Each structure stands twice: as structure tokens, then as C-alpha cells.
Amino acid sequence: MGNTIDLFMWGYQQHVQISFQVSAESLFKKIDYKLNPRVFFIGVLVDKREDRHPVCLEPEDCGYNVESFRDLKDLATQLEKVDEEGRIFHSHQIAQENHEKRITTKSYIEGINKILKRENVYGENEHYVASPTYIDGFLVFTVLSLNKNALNKYYSLIKDKMDERFTIYRSFIESTINIFLKECSNSLKDPNNAINSIERNADELLRNAGRQFMYTVSAAGRNFEGLHGLYDACNEIASMKYEGAVGIGKMIIAPKDHKNVKVTLQLKEPIRVSDYRKVRKFLELSDNSSAIISDTALIYGLGELRGKYNPKEETLFEINFTSHFKWELSHDNNPLMVVEYREPSLPVEKINREKFYSDFPRLFDGISKEQIDDLWDISMEATKQKHGTMLVISDNAANEAIRLGKQCFTLKPLKLTEKIIQQITSIDGAVLLDRDSTCHAIGVILDGLATEKGDASRGARFNSAIRYYEQFGKETSLVLVIISEDGMINLIPNLKPQIKHSLITEAIDEFKSILDLQNLNHKAFNQGMSFFQSLNFYLTKKECETINKLRKEIEEKFKKDLAMMHIVYSDLEPNEEMNDSYYKPE
Fold this sequence. Notes:
By secondary structure, the chain is α+β, with helices and mostly antiparallel strands. The protein is built from 16 helices and 25 strands. Helix 1 crosses helix 6 (202-220) and helix 7 (230-239) crosses helix 8 (276-283).
């Protein structure tokens, strides 16, 4: 039996939308899985067709209805009239037609954005609209939605124009969004390519986004000769070794004679940034106190920052070459992008402070905020240890120091401070301390039973921590803080965040109400199951059984509605590690 499309634009609209959705998930989950991308189409009928709806949505359960867009054409016309005063008239007919088309497109996009904001005032998603593609009488707009909370946790620049004319991008995410939407618009030019609509894979799109974002940085140098090629130049410089050594150093990007840059060593003849080997050799001279000074076309020497920089100017950026094939971009000490082996990504927090402060009270009963503050400061200082290290925080630390005495250096109990962390973590082995930040042993070699919970892709430090926790974690309050060479922190145990139990009970009641309907609400059914799957860990055995039973009853009652096309859901199973500590107080 075929699947009937009520809001029909073209025959393969469902297939292409699904293809775009899969591509969006592949792309944005590489950046941050919490972005939770969603893709849908808005089709506006621009030809006179009595057999077509004036506005179509795909999928129909995208969270909006066609009534929301009933005034879109009128709104776009009003916005287009606002642009008339500044309209440019071209002598060539084709140029004039293209100009008119751009204004119309801009007006429609502004209109769609206004409607989406109006309908989504308290929503959790931010929407982005692509330029439309004409398909069978419709202007088809691809809309991408991303989670606001996930977007807002990353630093972003303010300016989106260079010289008030040329578009630049405020963040790596924004550049990625632009690249993806352009790819969607181009792919729709062949609307019947339903199998693999977006042919370029996620890695290629991310590389293009990283390259495009670097135009924001090169534009800040105010030297047109350096506008292009900065992304590739940094990759080449990071890949080179000088006399066998890895290049580590900094480059400041700013206009020549920037008021906040003091040149301490000036070259008589500037080095061209495109002369990668010379740049790599010169990089050897930079250190913690001085950096290469460049306007992206030329390198003028070494220098340092001085005075108070106004970050709103966005005229000064720093590129930090941290290791072989790796460099980082920042602005005003705020990380913007990390590129490793030519693959760009967003800077990842060493650890989420909120998680640290949430997990410790759950693992150490009665621990005070002051105690957590001290442990946090010690952990942050330990991230500066270039070879990585591990902190074992245990209420049984004093006894463990005695038990492990032959495989560690036991100490007279010592209250740890940030000043001595670098010294005591410089040797191999873990640091053993209690909740009061009192250290009992250093250089500790941990023991523990073999466990299936290890990870072969991780190093010996991580797996020894897992083994130790599996053996002793149930005997005493215990947390292991694992710090890798790049300063990233893992906590063992890695607790899932707490949620309010009422979220689950209310969702079950709403799901149950589907059975009271005469016709199946596909959107409510799929959203309900997606919600339960996302929170599967938090479900009790009884709740899993209740949801599984309800789902089967719904599928049986509405089997005619589900006959043409539906998602097949598996039974939910409880997680043996779940307990009441994962529920927030109501």
C-alpha cells in the first residue's frame, strides 16, 4: 500500500527530508550531541495551482501546522516594501531580475523567521532557514532547528559583517549551520535524488566550515592579501617539525600597529605567512611571554599584548600551536575552535563544573561546599600537569595509604594547596587524598579486580581506575579524577545527571491519553516514545512494563493508521545501576 502525502509538493519530499535529517544528525552530533538537530521543509506555492495547498510542511508533524504560516505571503510582501527605498536598479535586465529575486528571498526568510519566533516564544530550539529552491511550483525552504541551551554554552563573537558589507561568521557552529543549509539548497536542485541527497560527508562539511570561519579571523588583520588561506596555512605549520621537534608556539592575528600589540623583535623583511617553512622556523622563537605578530599576510616579528583590549572590537585573535598537527583559535582568552589533524571541532570543557558540584554530594554524604571548592581548585590545578595524572579521593584514604604502602610514597598527612599540586603530580602514579583535601600518599600504583567495564581504547590510567573503583567503590565513598595529557578530566564513577521523577510520571499519563483519541496522533505517539527512549536509564522496572504495555495497546488500536509507515519500537528494559539518587527533589 502506498503512502499518501496530504501536503504534497513533490513525490520524493519525504525521502529527501529523511536524508537531510540523517545528514544533520551525523554532522551536528560530531560537534555536540546535545544540539539535537531537526530538519523540516516549508513549501510556499508561488505558481497558480488549484490542486495544491498554498503552504506545505514536511514532515507534517514537524511541530508546526500550516495555519501558522497562513499570513506568510502578506508578511513577506510587507517586508519587501520596506526594502524598496534602498533598492538598487541595474541597467542589465538579468542583473535586475536577480536583484529582485534576492530581495524576495530575503523577505520570505525574514517572514518565516518571524513566524517561527512567534510560534516558539518559549520553545527550546533555535531555527535557521536556508535559501529556497524552486520545485514544481513551490519555493521550498529547508529549516534547521538546534537546541538553544546547547548553542548558548559556547562562546560567540558579536560582529557578523566586515565593513558593514561582507558576511562573516561569529562562531564555528554558525559557520557549520551556514555550510549545511547551503548544501541542502544545492541538493534540492535535484529533488528526486532520494537515496543520498547530501553527498558530502560530515567530515568534509566540517572542514569547509572551519575554513570559512577562519575568514572572520583573517578579515580582522585588515590586509586583503592575507584574507584567503589562513586555515590551510595553520594546518601546514602545525604539521611541520623543525630539527625533529614539534612546533609549539603562538601567533597573534591583528592589524599592523594594533594599539594592544607591542613588537619586541621586529623583522627587517617581514615573512609571508604562505612561506610555511620560514614561519615554522620562526615559531621556535615564541614562548609563553611572546608570540609571532601577523596580519595574516605578513609576519612582522615577535611581540606581546599590552594595555586593556576591548573585546567588542574583535580585532585581535590568538592561534596557539599546541602539539603536532594541533592548533587552537581563541579571542580574548575565550576558545573558539580546535583543529587536530586538519579536523576542526569545538573546544571541549575540561569538565563541567556543574557536574562536579552535582556529583560529589551524591558520592560523599554530608560533604560541604567548601570541601568541594577545595577539591575543584586542586583538580583544576592538576590539569596543568603536561603528562596527565590521577587523584584518588577516598574517605578511606588513610587506611589505603597503609595498605598500599609498598607501592606508593606515604606522607605525613598534608593539606593540599594549588601551589604544590604540580610537584606532587610530576611523578607517575596517583595522588591519594580525602574529602578534606588532605594528602596521604603520592605515586600510588592502584590495584583492583579485572572487570568488563574497562575500555580497550583508553589508556592504562583509565582502566586501572575502573578496576580499582569496581573493587572498592562499594566499601567507601570514593571518586577517581583522571586527568589526561590534554588536560581533560574524567570522573569515575561517571554519574548520569539527576532528573525530576515527575517528568516521567507526567509523560506516562500523557502517553496513556492517546488511547482516548478516535484517530492516532502520530506526533504525540512518536514524541512520547522518543522521550521514554532518551530517559530509559531512569525508568523503573514497573515503569518500563507500563510503557511497553501502553505502546502495544496503542499500536493495536490504531494499527490501520500505522499500516502505511511507522517506526518500530523495541521494549524498554530497566537499568540495574538505576536507583533513587538519580532523582532530584521535587
